[in-house]
Every structure is written in structure tokens, then in C-alpha cells.
Design goal:
Blueprint lengths: L3 E6 L6 H13 L2 E7 L10 H11 L6 E6 L3 H7 L4 E5 L3 H17 L4 E5 L10 H9 L10 H14 L1
Parallel strand pairs: 1-2, 1-4, 2-3, 4-5
The structure holds 4'-phosphopantetheine (PNS).
4'-phosphopantetheine (PNS) binds next to strand 1 and helix 4.
Length: 162
């Protein structure tokens, strides 16, 4: 049976912390599907299409990384993709409670799918999409914290908003 993992999230935008987790997952699983949540309630900075394009461009050289979108229950999406694993990154203790609740709820809904947590490299433990957006909006430099394509798009958005 192929080991298929889903790595779900908002990815608004993709950070180097996400990239680090995806590359670790790509070594462990036959396929890793980076699944962007379509969340009608949130007003994202990047459209779902932009986020998918960023993921595809960042991982064009890694054959077993795919990008997709989903709505509804994550566990239903995982089953539809025949995934046996959900991957999540854990940066700090502050992530733990929310992640544990989600992992146990997903296990309650579908015991056959296991959640696997991975730690990103230390230099990304403080990086989050929310802080990246805030720092860029206030004129700070995020070089090295996001893929080059994300940085270029963030700067472009900033210029057109002025
Ligand atoms: O990166 P994020 O925004 O923290 O990711 C959260 C995500 C997408 C993993 C979570 O919101 C999710 O799984 N949403 C889908 C709806 C769902 O399945 N909810 C029940 C979770 S136990």
C-alpha cells in the first residue's frame, strides 16, 4: 500500500517553515499532498489559485509533492485521496493544544488515518504566515523566511496597494 500523506493548512502564504516540513514529509511518504483549505469565512491575502501556484512552483523539482485544494472535513478529503496520514508541523508548546484537539477529533472521526507531527528546523520555529504578512505590511524584511516567489508576490501586492 503506498504511503500517502496530506499536509493541510491555509498557507497564506507558504513559509520556509512549511517548505521544511514538506521536504521532510517527501522523504518519509510516497506522496505528500499539500492541501489548501478553501475557507469562505476568512479573507486571505493570497487567493487559493495563487497559493496553489506558489506551492507548485516551489516544489516543481520534487516529484512526490502535489498541491490541491479542499473544503469540508479534512478527514473526508484524506479518505477520498486514500491518504493514511495527516502531517502537521509543531513549532512550540503553544501549538500543542490546538493540534492535539484536531488530531484526536480526526482520529475519532476516522481511526484509520494517523496524524504525524514533525518539527521544522530551529531557524523557522518562530515563523508564521500571520507574522510574515504583518512584518511585510509594516515595511520589514522577510528574506530567508519565505520562498523567493512568495517574497516577490508580497512586495508586488504591497506596491499595488500603495
Ligand atoms: O494551517 P492552519 O490554518 O492552522 O490549518 C488548519 C486546518 C486546515 C488543518 C484545519 O482548519 C482543518 O482541518 N479544517 C478543515 C475542517 C475540518 O476538518 N475541521 C475539523 C478539524 S478536527
Amino acid at each position: 500500500m503506498p504511503r500517502i500523506a496530506v499536509y493541510p493548512g491555509s498557507f497564506d502564504p507558504l513559509t520556509n517553515g512549511h517548505v521544511d516540513i514538506i521536504l521532510r514529509g517527501a522523504k518519509l511518504f510516497d506522496r505528500i499532498i499539500v492541501a489548501v483549505l478553501i475557507n469562505a469565512e476568512k479573507k486571505p491575502l493570497f487567493s487559493v489559485e495563487e497559493r496553489l501556484a506558489i506551492i507548485r512552483e516551489t516544489f516543481k523539482a520534487t516529484a512526490n509533492v502535489e498541491a490541491d485544494q479542499f473544503s469540508g472535513l479534512l478527514i473526508d478529503y484524506a479518505r477520498a485521496k486514500q491518504a493514511n496520514v495527516i502531517v502537521r508541523g509543531l513549532r512550540a508548546v503553544s501549538d500543542f493544544e490546538y493540534e492535539m484537539q484536531m488530531a484526536l477529533m480526526n482520529r475519532h472521526l476516522q481511526p484509520a488515518v494517523e496524524t504525524v507531527f514533525m518539527m521544522p528546523a530551529e531557524q523557522y520555529t518562530y515563523v508564521s504566515s500571520r507574522l510574515i504578512k504583518e512584518v511585510v505590511a509594516l515595511g520589514g524584511d522577510v528574506t530567508g523566511l519565505v520562498p523567493a516567489g512568495v517574497e516577490a508576490r508580497l512586495n508586488r501586492k504591497k506596491r499595488t496597494q500603495k
